[in-house]
């Protein structure tokens, strides 16, 4: 649609501009072309404005909510990690740069001759730094792109005449003092936090309510968020399908990771939502294993727990696959127990049910089946082979905030039971080093749950059939 609009606009311009207007036409064409060079499906400014208004409605009278950006994290020496914005800050603003502070007021207040119910202070334009690190929005860019009426450079926060004692509630999220002081920057995060603390030293600061408000807002997704989650999940599922085709003995775990993340990037994901877990053999029994340095062997299972991040929203999809393309008899038994447990958990993902109902249903299946196999003697003993929860919220964080109350429509949660039997477990050694996890991303609806990640095969028959198909490439020669 945007492309067609651009073509139409170009045609109108070419027909209406005279020869003497050619320089202006060329400039317009450059602007149109530049507009189409970058991502065009980011959340609009109206989404973030509506989310601020939704928060404002939750806030008590005579209150202010204060948000800080994430700190810049140093990797080593003069190299920083790629910056990732605090999800709450992004959710409310769309701003993706560091060293900023957002103030949301319940009611309009007058500050330094202006009347407003929100203020944002952001890092300024800086030609030297932008040569190295890329373009900044600056205050004017925030006004234009993110549609804030009042935006200022961050160093101005120190000088505003804002008395936090006038508020009955100063709402903040817990601040971790794990950021550096750039002594040459009066507006860095260190300075913003310092000036806020000075200005609010005697105010009624509440570090609990804002956490609850943001969990309440973010646990239920808006339509725009669900669309981005669908995209992230589909990218992830496509990558899992391609890995099933390519997987073979002799690869390394990191090569399986490379296949997945190649398809993430190819299909538009900016990042991984979390470090990719590619655990084969004994590593299939390590829940958050992400070293990914082992060679995968004939007879191994590979637990592949990954998620593409698309426009800030992350998927979380786990598939367990046999490295040689065929499950052994013991692997089949354990795999089908986990699949049975997952199906029971997904069935419980209905509006009105308790958040933990999917876990309880999955756990009952695993306990019953492991006792039948004599892998465990009691339900409690069976839990050592399934030591984690079945579900968490999904969104801007892979473990998104939420209140863990009744399930409601438009929430997205995972259902991820697993069985892990490490070597040395008190059971028949034939079960040792079998680790199986199956994880899908489930949308709660007014009716039956929707499995957003169903395009990645889950049954043994589907997986074995797919693994016989040729891969787009072969990483082992």
Approximately how much helix is present in the residues?
25-40%
Low-confidence stretches: 1-17
What is the CATH fold-level name of the largest domain?
A: Creatine Amidinohydrolase
The radius of gyration is: 26 Å
Quaternary arrangement of the chains shown? Answer: single chain
What value does the average pLDDT take? 93
Would you tell me the structural class of the helices and strands? alpha+beta
- What is the terminal separation in angstroms? 44 Å
The CATH homologous superfamily of the largest domain:
Creatinase/methionine aminopeptidase superfamily
Would you mind describing this structure in some detail?
The two termini are 44 Å apart. The protein is elongated and about 75 Å long. It has helices at 2-16, 22-35, 45-58, 87-93, 127-133, 138-145, 189-199, 209-219, 223-246, 253-266, 329-347, 357-372, 379-382, 460-466; strands at 63-68, 74-76, 79-80, 101-111, 114-122, 151-153, 169-172, 205-206, 271-272, 277-280, 301-306, 308-310, 313-314, 317-322, 412-415, 418-421, 434-437, 440-443, 450-451. The strands form 6 sheets. Strands 6-5-4-1-7-8 form a 6-stranded mixed β-sheet, sandwiched between helices. The chain has 477 residues and is α+β, with helices and mostly antiparallel strands. Mean pLDDT is 93; it is low at 1-17. A hairpin with a 2-residue loop joins strand 4 (101-111) and strand 5 (114-122). The chain has 2 domains: 45-216, 3-Layer(aba) Sandwich (Creatine Amidinohydrolase, Chain A, domain 1), CATH 3.40.350.10; 220-466, Creatine Amidinohydrolase (Alpha-Beta Complex).
């Amino acid at each position: 649609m945007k492309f067609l609009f651009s073509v139409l606009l170009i045609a109108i311009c070419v027909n209406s501009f005279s020869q003497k207007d050619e320089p202006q036409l060329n400039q317009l064409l450059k602007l149109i072309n530049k507009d189409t060079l970058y991502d065009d499906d980011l959340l609009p400014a109206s989404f973030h404005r509506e989310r601020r208004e939704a928060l404002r409605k939750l806030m008590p009278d005579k209150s202010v909510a204060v948000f800080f950006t994430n700190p810049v994290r140093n990797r080593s020496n003069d190299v920083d990690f790629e910056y990732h914005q605090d999800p709450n800050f992004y959710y409310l603003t769309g701003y993706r740069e560091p060293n900023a502070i957002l103030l949301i007021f319940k009611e309009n207040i007058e500050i330094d001759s202006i009347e407003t119910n929100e203020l944002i202070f952001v890092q300024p334009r800086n030609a030297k730094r932008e040569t190295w690190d890329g373009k900044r929005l600056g205050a004017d860019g925030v006004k234009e792109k993110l549609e804030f009426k009042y935006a200022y450079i961050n160093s101005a926060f120190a000088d505003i005449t804002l008395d936090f004692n006038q508020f009955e509630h100063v709402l903040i999220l817990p601040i971790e003092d794990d950021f550096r002081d750039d002594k040459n920057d009066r507006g860095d995060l260190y300075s913003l936090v310092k000036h806020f603390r000075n200005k609010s030293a005697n105010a009624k600061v509440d570090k609990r309510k804002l956490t609850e408000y943001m969990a309440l807002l973010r646990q239920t997704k808006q339509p725009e968020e669900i669309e981005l989650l669908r995209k992230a999940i589909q990218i992830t599922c496509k990558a899992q399908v391609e890995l099933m085709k390519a997987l073979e003995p002799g690869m390394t775990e990191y090569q399986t990771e490379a296949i997945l993340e190649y398809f993430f990037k190819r299909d538009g994901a900016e990042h991984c939502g979390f470090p990719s877990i590619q655990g084969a053999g004994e590593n299939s029994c390590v829940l958050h294993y992400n070293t990914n340095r082992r060679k995968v062997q004939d007879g191994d299972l590979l637990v592949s727990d990954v998620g593409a991040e698309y426009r800030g929203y992350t998927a979380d999809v786990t598939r367990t696959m046999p490295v040689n393309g065929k499950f052994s008899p013991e692997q089949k038994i354990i795999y089908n127990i986990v699949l049975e447990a997952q199906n029971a958990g997904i069935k419980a993902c209905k509006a009105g049910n308790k958040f933990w109902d999917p876990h309880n249903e999955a756990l009952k299946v695993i306990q019953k089946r492991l006792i039948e196999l004599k892998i465990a003697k009691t339900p409690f003993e069976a839990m050592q082979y399934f030591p984690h929860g079945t579900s968490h919220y999904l969104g801007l964080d892979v473990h998104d905030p939420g209140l863990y109350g009744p399930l409601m429509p438009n929430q997205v949660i995972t259902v991820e039971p697993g069985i892990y039997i490490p070597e040395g477990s008190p059971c028949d050694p034939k079960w040792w080093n079998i680790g199986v996890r199956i994880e899908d991303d489930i949308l709660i609806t007014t009716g039956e749950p929707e499995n957003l990640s169903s395009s990645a095969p889950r049954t043994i028959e589907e997986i074995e059939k797919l693994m016989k198909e040729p891969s787009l490439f072969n990483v082992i020669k």
